[in-house]
Every structure is written in C-alpha cells, then in structure tokens.
Automatic annotation (TrEMBL):
This is Charged multivesicular body protein 5. The keyword Coiled coil applies. One of its GO terms (cellular component) is multivesicular body. The lineage of its organism: Eukaryota, Viridiplantae, Streptophyta, Embryophyta, Tracheophyta. GO terms for biological process: late endosome to vacuole transport via multivesicular body sorting pathway; vesicle budding from membrane. The keyword Ion transport does not apply. InterPro entries: Snf7_fam. It comes from the Eukaryota. Belongs to the SNF7 family. Keywords: Coiled coil. Residues 1-25, 171-234 are annotated as: Disordered. Transmembrane segments: none annotated.
Length: 234
C-alpha cells in the first residue's frame, strides 16, 4: 500500500512566536558581527588612504573601501529588516499574552461568580431578620434576669410617698442640728460626765481599807495606793 499510494508525511507543527523571535535574534546577532568586521576593515582603509599619496594607489584603496562600505550598508539594511520582524513578533507575543490573561481573568471571575451565587443561596434575608429578633429577645430576657437577681431583700415594698417624705424631713432636721454642733452627729457626740454618772448610778468607792482610813496622799510613783511596809515582811 505504501508503494502504491505513498507514505503519509507527518506535518511539522508551526514554530511558536518565541521560537521565531529567538531565530531572528540569532540572525540579527550574526549580521551585527559582520558589520563590526566591516567597520574594522574600513578603519584600516582609512589609515591607508591617509598614508598613500594621491594617485592610482590611493584610488585603488578608495575603491576597496567603497566596496566594503556598500557591503556594510547592505548588512545594515538586513539588520533593520530583522529588527522590524522582531518588533512585530514581540507585538504579537504581547497581544497573545494579553488574550491569555483575559481568558484566565474571565475563568476566575466565572468561578468566583458561581461560588458567590452558591453562597448567597444559603443566606436569606428572612433568616437574618429572624435571627436578629431572637437576639433582641435574648438580650431583653438577660436584662430581666439581671434585674431580678439584683433585687434587695431588705427593702420593703409597702412604703408610700408620705412615709418617704417624713423620713426625708427627719434626716434634714438631723443634718441641720449636726451643722450647729460642729458637723458631728448627735449619736457620735460625747456625753457629759454628770449625765453619764446619773445614768450609770454607780456606788462611790470605799474610803477605808481593812477598817483603817486610807491616806489620800499615800500613793506610789505610778498613782496606785502605796502598800504598807508591814505587809511586805515575811
């Protein structure tokens, strides 16, 4: 079969933009090297023209220099053409990369949009409002619990306004008396000696010891009654 119809040739894939750019850059580098070599030859011919006297010899050197200059101009034209092709390939590469970036951006945005839609389906405004109402009820219930626990057991609940005003008037009168007494409440003021003795009604201290009259001046250095010396003997 291959002899009759021939073998099918495999198609080589076309070069990519990067491969074509690299190949053209290599060609441009080769042309630049040739131009540098021609510049070096032109420098030599220029020195020869300066050293040669006018005449046939100088004209021959000028002819060779003119030929080298023409080659240089040809290579410079090729180099400019290669640079133009490289610039066009770079523009195509930039556009291609931009399209790829746009495709990736669109794919990412589509995925994010799909995820956002899936998330929004799980959130409902009615559920959020219901949750907020429940939170408010819980806060109010917590406040009621705190107020209930903070009640005092010693404060009577059957006090009326008249009793309250009476207590306030009594406190006001007591505060007025305190101001006249130097700012000390009546229950903190010291009582007089006569009043204290009359209230206590204590008996008087005995004036004799063992049936003998005590000497009011017989006291030791600490103010206690002096002990007779006879009592100190054994």
């Amino acid at each position: 079969m291959k002899r009759v119809f021939g073998a099918r040739k495999e198609k080589t894939p076309p070069p990519t933009v990067e491969e074509a750019t690299e190949r053209i850059n290599k060609r441009g580098d080769g042309v630049d090297d040739k131009i540098k070599k021609l510049d070096a030859e032109l420098v030599k011919y220029r020195e020869q023209i300066k050293r040669t006297r006018p005449g046939p010899a100088q004209e021959a050197v000028k002819a060779r220099a003119m030929r080298i200059l023409k080659q240089k101009k040809m290579y410079e034209g090729q180099r400019d053409m290669l640079y133009s092709q490289t610039f066009n390939l770079e523009q195509v590469s930039f556009a291609t990369e931009g399209i790829k970036d746009a495709q990736q951006t669109m794919s990412a945005m589509k995925a994010a949009n799909k995820e956002l839609k899936g998330t929004m389906k799980t959130l409902k405004i009615d559920d959020i409002d219901k949750m907020q109402d429940e939170m408010l009820d819980l806060v109010d219930y917590s406040t009621e619990i705190q107020e209930s626990l903070g009640r005092s057991y010693n404060v009577p609940d059957d006090l009326d306004e008249e009793e309250l005003m009476g207590e306030l008037s009594a406190l006001e009168a007591e505060m007025g008396e305190t101001e006249h007494d130097g700012g000390v409440p009546s229950y903190l003021q010291p009582e007089k000696d006569g009043d204290l003795e009359s209230e206590l009604n204590l008996p008087a201290a005995p004036s004799t010891a063992h049936g003998a009259q005590a000497n009011p001046q017989a006291a030791d250095e600490y103010g206690f009654p002096a002990v007779p010396r006879a009592s100190l003997r054994t």
